[in-house]
Amino acid sequence: MKASKRLSPLGAVGIALGLAGAFVGHAANAQDFAITGVTVATGDGSEPVENGAVLVRGGRVVYAGPASGMPATGGATAVDGQGAWVTPGIVAAVTTLGLLDVGGVGESNDSSARNSPFSAALDVAPIVNPNSQHILVHRAAGVTRAATTTSPSASIFGGQGAIIDLGADPDAVMRPRAFQMVALGEQGGRIAGGSRAAAHVLFRNALREAMRLGEDAQIPGRSSDRPETDLGDDVPIDPRLSGEYAERAGDVLLTRFDASALVPVVRGEQMLLVAVERASDIRSVLALKQEFPRLDMVLVGASEGWLVAQDIAAAGVPVIADGLDDLPQNFEELAATQSNIGRLAAAGVTVAINASAMENPRNLNQFAGNLVALSRVPGASGLSWGQALATITSVPARILGLEGRAGALTQGAAGDLVMWDGDPLEVGSTPTRVFIDGVEQPLENHQSKLKERYRDLDRGDLPKGYVW
C-alpha cells in the first residue's frame, strides 16, 4: 500500500511550503490554500466557470466553482490567480512513464522484456523510477497521475501495470498490480505465432490455466473487508506458489508465476487492458465475456471502434481510444477516422484518450483540444469543451478505478490541480504551477535547464557544456 508522501517544493513562489528534512504524510506537508480570480474547469464534463475559485485543505479539494459559492477559507493562504485557468491534473493512460530514460538506449529502457521467460508475471511496481526525466517533463506538462506498464513483447501478455503519481518524491507507485495488459490484434497475432488464431488460443488457454490453478492451489481472492486507502486499494494478494503446488502438469504453457499472476484477472479482481484495433477483433473480444463473464475488460486503441460503438456500449466495456487516427497505419485500422472518439461518446461509450498512441503523452491536452475543433467541422464528430477535458482527467480516472479521488476537482478528491496561463486545450497554453495532493511541485527538468542554458548565446570563458 502506498504511503502518501510528498517532497516540499524547491523555490515555490506564492505558496511556500518549505523544505522539510524528512518525508511526512501529505496532510502534514500540504498547505491549505484558496485560489481566486481564475477560470475553473472541474473536469467532470461541465463547461469552465469564469470568476471561479478553488479551496484545498489537507491535500483535498474542498470547493471548486463560482467564487460566489466559496465557503469560509479560514486560515487558508490566499492566492490571486490573476486570470489563470485551473483544472484537475491530467490522468495519462496508458504509458511507460518511469520505465525508461532514453528510449533508444536499451540499458535505460525497461518498457519491454522481449527476452524474458516471464510475461503476465512481470510487475512494474519495483522498477518505476520517480527521477526519470520523462516523469519530470510530463509533470511540468500538467500530468499528475498515470497508468504505466511494460509492452507485450515475449508474449501477448505485457504484465502487471501500476498506477503512479508524478510527485517529486521517491514513492511514485500508488497502486501496484492495478491491471494486466494483453495484445489481441495484429501485434498479438504476430507475437503468438503469426496469426490472430494463435493469439486467441494462447489467451483462452492462459485464462483456463489460471482458473484451474487458482482452484487447485486454493489461492484466496481479494478480501472484501479490506479498507480502502486514500487513493485506491492495491491488489492485496500477489499469489506466488510454493511447496506442494510448485509442480504442475506437463501440458501447461505458462510458468507457474505467469499463471498465478492471471488468477486475479480471471476472477475479475484485476483489470484487463486489451489492445485491439479492428472492428471484427473488438467483437471477438467482447464475445469473451460470454466465456469468461467475470473479466473486467477495457479496450485500448480501438481505431475502428466507431463501427461497433453500439456493441461496445451494450457490453458496458470502457475504451481508451487513440486520439486522432485519421489515416490507416496498417490493415487493422483501415476504417480509422478522427471522429472515432466523438462517435463512441455519442453512442454512450465511456471513452478516454489513449496516451500510448502518441509519441509524447504530455500533448494529451492538445489532442483533447483537437476533439473540440472537430465538433465545428461539418460532417465530423467531436466533443464539447467539457467533454474533451474529461477524456484526459475524470474519465481515465474512472476507468482506472479512481473516480471521485483523482481527475476531477470535486469535494474530497485529491488536491491534484494545474494552473495554466490560458485555455488548457489551446496549443499555446502551458502550466505555470502544478499541485499533487495539495503540494506544489517543482517544474524543472533537463529540457527547461537546456532552455535556460542556451537563452544567452554570448561567448563566454567556458563552453556551454560547463555552464548550469
From TrEMBL:
Q: Which residues form the signal peptide?
A: 1-27
Q: Which InterPro entries match?
A: Amidohydro_3 (IPR013108), Metal-dep_hydrolase_composite (IPR011059), Metal_Hydrolase (IPR032466), Metallo-dep_Hydrolase (IPR051781)
Q: Can you tell which superkingdom this protein's organism belongs to?
A: Bacteria
Gene3D superfamilies associated with the record: Metal-dependent hydrolases, Urease, subunit C, domain 1
The Amidohydrolase domain, residue ranges: 380-430
Classification lineage: Bacteria, Pseudomonadati, Pseudomonadota, Alphaproteobacteria, Sphingomonadales
Query: What Pfam families does the entry give?
Result: Amidohydro_3
Q: What's the source species for this entry?
A: Qipengyuania spongiae
Locate the region Disordered: 217-239
Q: Which UniProt keywords apply?
A: Signal
Name listed for the protein in its UniProt record: Amidohydrolase family protein
